[in-house]
Amino acid sequence: MTWFRRPAAAGSRVSLLYEGSAKAAGAAALLSPRRVLTCAHVVNDALGRDLHCAEHPAPAGPLTVALRGSAAPDGGPAAGDGTEPGAAGVGGTHRVTATVSVWVPPQPRPSALEWEGDLAVLDLDEPAPSKFRPVVWRDMEEGQELRAWHGGGEAITFADIVVGFKEGRYGYLDGPLSGAAVGPGYSGGPLWTRDASAAAGLVVAHLMPPGAEPLGMQQAVRRSWAVPWQAVREELARAGAADVLEECAVAGRPGRRPWCGGPETVRAAAAFVPVLRALLDDPRRRADHARALAAGLGYTAAPGSGHVAPTVEELAELLVTEERALATLTESLAPAVRSGADREALNSLLALGRLERCVRLLSVGEHRLLLEDLRRVTAADATLVPRAAREALRYMALPGPLGAAARLAEGDLDAVVPALEGYPDGPSAGGGAPPVPALLRLAAFVASAAPDRETRDSLRGWCDRVAHRLGISPVALAERRADAANWAAQRPSPVSRVVLRLTGDGPDAGGAPGADGQGTERYRCRISLVRKDGTTTTVAAPEGTCAPDEIGRLVREAAEGGHGDDAYPLTQVDVVVGRDGLQLPVDGWDTGNALGDLFPGLDGLRLALGAKYRVALRCPEMSRRSPRREAEMRRRWAAGDPGVLVVDETCATLQQLYQRLETSHKDVAGVVLHGPREERDRLLDLCLALGVPVVLWDREADGHGHAARLDALAPAGPLHGLPERVREFRAGVYGATVSSEARPALVWEDAELPVPGSLELLDPS
User: Fold this and answer.
1) Cα gap 608→586, rounded to integer Å
2) Tens of pLDDT along 715-764?
């Protein structure tokens, strides 16, 4: 392409800052919204360690990464450290903390000026805003003209270099004797091609020979060396970072970056040409819309183009290689569409775009305005967007944070909105009209319950404009709005309990138990809200596994966000586990602190799940193993026997307990277990198989001699008050107001409150 010119500094620049400072230790490359790549010696420098330290920096804690936008579209300098985080505009600076996930330490070679390794991948604690574009990689070749920036990110620090020689994992760079030169602070930064469309590797070091041999200063005034993309790829593969490589955008690999390329581009662009001719055959009209498109995307027209229009072929190529180009072009075309033939051609253009993986639903402006409205909504009510999504998109698997929590952070929107752009459309409105996209349905539902009139009107206006551009029938949009209004007018039944379903994933490799005995186990979880009317809503289904305290936080967020404005106090949490999970210390998992950000003195306060809620275990697996169990549980509850069987030395064997539960205590609903751990586990299985709905035991007890540790719970007291007595005891133990080594575990199976099923229906489209 020649008419559309990308500014020379179009790539986002990333800095790794010294601890407690705004000064950059070096630069980095944005691999994906969640990851950056830099040199390991830059991480060492930022942490104040020796540059060639090989030890993994994990114990040092998080690092600070500054994401800086490119130079402004008019060619002005990028903002420096003075720009407020999250500032609007192309040049804004955004700071985020990060931790090292992949560590390839520097490995000096004897009698050599270069070293090996020296790579680090950092995981960002929150995704980079969408305005920061990840790097697209390409192989390094001799003769390439490249450009680097100092880690501080200032536009004026650009240094132009040429790849003079490439050998193995090293690329040797030379710079002209004028302008800036690569030096300290440039390490870890990407080497951009001059049009900033791709990067060929990372800057490692300026050559600083210690003496006259083998190179003297006169021979190496401006010589540096880099690690080419080819070597980065090989090093990360050896380090086992296949998931990182999969996220990397690579030139010529379609579908892996915000703008695509390769052989498929030519085929896709050719399909757009006839439709574009029908809409923009007039060169003057094409030139007007091309200039508007270039301005929206941050491009500039080629010098001297004046009123000269780009060719239809060049315009078509841009539409299939720049993710928001098609939507931005149709945004300027839609208001001028008058005839039915033009509308039909515009619909055909949009239909072609829906077939391309690299084409986004929203224009640059639509995307920005939607994020602004949703951020205002989320700041006022962090539960609204997730609640609206569960209703508007009830048969879809919601993306990432939208489906993984009852509350949504403002920073999560940068990942949620692009994810929903690619979701399948709803059913067709008939008559050839396009269906209402998932994102538009969500916006309509959020608008119906937005906290203030200004935001409601803004979101509704946004929906009208996007629907008109997409050719969506006003009737179809009105139907979605009617559904949204009915939903917003309903007052949901209050939540009576939270159900947490856990499946173990085992300890991490090499993990050792922590001081709390939890070790490094991780679990898959699903969290559901059960309302008083019996309806169930799945609130959280995080992808992959979670740490125990992360699950505790998710449960708290679900409990606090589930009942909205209703004053009903939610106190019950049912934990659904298999037989192997009955001894998990779930009641001790940390729930986090919602007020930690507001009151810094509370940020370190630990509040255990079992102290905040009545936590009880449920084991439906045992019902599958014992067919009579469900009927027996209902019978025992209905019998109304207020007594509790306390298992002591007189009934400490399987045979003795079985005889009592089948004869003299056939109607009791509660059993208190004492005794050695191994024997106690066998007795627990027997109680559950025989349909005993309530079982209490001390999971830390070693024998019958520890039975008295549960006396504070009045275990033989009224059964209906046992869950609250257990909660109060746990609150005292975990809050250090009660001195006891007991850790009571409680199974409470309520036959009238079934466990939500595991069936999940997804959109068949």
Assistant:
1) 9
2) 988 888 999 999 999 999 998 888 899 999 999 998 767 776 544 444 44
Quick one: CA dihedral 14, 542, 243, 123, positive or negative? positive
- What are the distances in angstroms from CA 78 to CA 92, 127, 149, 301, 719? 8, 21, 12, 20, 68
Q: What is the Cα–Cα distance from 52 to 37, expressed in whole angstroms?
A: 17
Enumerate the β-bridge partners of residue 446. none
Of 537, 540, 564, 560, whose CA–CA distance to 550 is shortest? Answer: 540
Instruction: Find all residues with CB under 8 Å of 565, minimum gap 6, and list them.
Output: none
Answer whether 70's CB lies under 8 Å from 11's CB. Answer: yes
Cα separation values, 347 from 187, 326, 344, 607, 715, Å: 48, 12, 5, 55, 71
Asked if residue 420 lies in contact with residue 398, where contact means CB atoms within 8 angstroms, the answer is no
State how far the alpha carbon of 475 is from the alpha carbons of 444, 461, 591, 675, in Å: 14, 16, 46, 69
Structural tokens at position 541: 């289904």
Q: How many residues does the chain have?
A: 765
Q: What is the mean pLDDT of residues 424-439?
A: 70
Residue among 206, 164, 51, 209 at smallest CA distance from 118 = 51
Element holding 728 (H helix, E strand): helix 722-734
Other CB atoms within a 10 A radius of the CB of residue 261 amount to: 23
> What's the rounded Cα separation, in Å, for the pair 223 and 758?
62
Q: Count other Cβ atoms within 10 Å, centred on residue 650.
A: 8
Distance separating alpha carbons of residues 535 and 495, to the nearest angstrom:
9
- pLDDT of 592-638, one tens digit each? 876 655 566 665 567 899 999 999 999 999 988 888 999 999 999 98
158-176 pLDDT, tens per residue? 888 888 877 778 887 877 7
pLDDT at 757: 59
* Percent residues over pLDDT 90 in the chain: 35
Percent of the chain at pLDDT exceeding 70? 80
Q: What are the pLDDT digits (tens) for 367-425?
A: 999 999 999 999 888 888 988 998 888 878 787 777 666 778 777 888 888 888 887 66
Q: Among residues 366, 384, 506, which one has the least CA distance to residue 440?
A: 366
Q: How far apart are CA 256 and CA 667, in angstroms?
A: 63
Strand, helix or coil for residue 261: coil
* Residue in this structure with the two tokens 């969290």, named with its chain if needed: 527
For residues 568-605, b (16+ Cβ closer than 10 Å) or e, as one string? eebbbbbbbbeeebbbbbbbbbbbbbeeeeeeeeeeee
- Write the pLDDT tens digit of every residue in 30-43: 988 889 999 999 99
Closest by Cα among 197, 173, 285, 169 to 6? 197
191 C-beta neighbours (distance < 10 Å), count: 28
- DSSP secondary-structure letter at 608? B
Rounded to whole angstroms, the Cα distance separating 398 from 404 reads 8
Q: What are phi and psi of 500, to 5 degrees?
A: -110, 115
Cα dist from 621 to 325, 451, 545, 629, whole Å: 53, 44, 21, 11
Strand 199-206 relative to strand 249-250: parallel, antiparallel, unpaired? Answer: unpaired
C-alpha span between 199 and 191 (Å, rounded): 5
According to DSSP, the β-strands at 495-507 and 572-576 are parallel
Going by their DSSP bridges, the two strands 249-250 and 136-137 should be labelled as: parallel
Residue in 707, 650, 716 with CA at minimum distance from that of residue 675: 707
pLDDT digits (tens, 9 = 90+) for 554-589: 888 888 765 444 444 578 999 999 999 999 999 999
Rounded to two decimals, the pTM is: 0.55
Q: Report helix, strand or coil for 649.
A: helix
R_g of the chain, CA atoms, integer Å: 31
Helix (H, G, I), strand (E, B) or coil at 83: coil
pLDDT greater than 90 at residue 75 = no
Contact of 661 with 730, CB cutoff 8 Å: no
* Cβ-contact 107, 239 below 8 angstroms: no
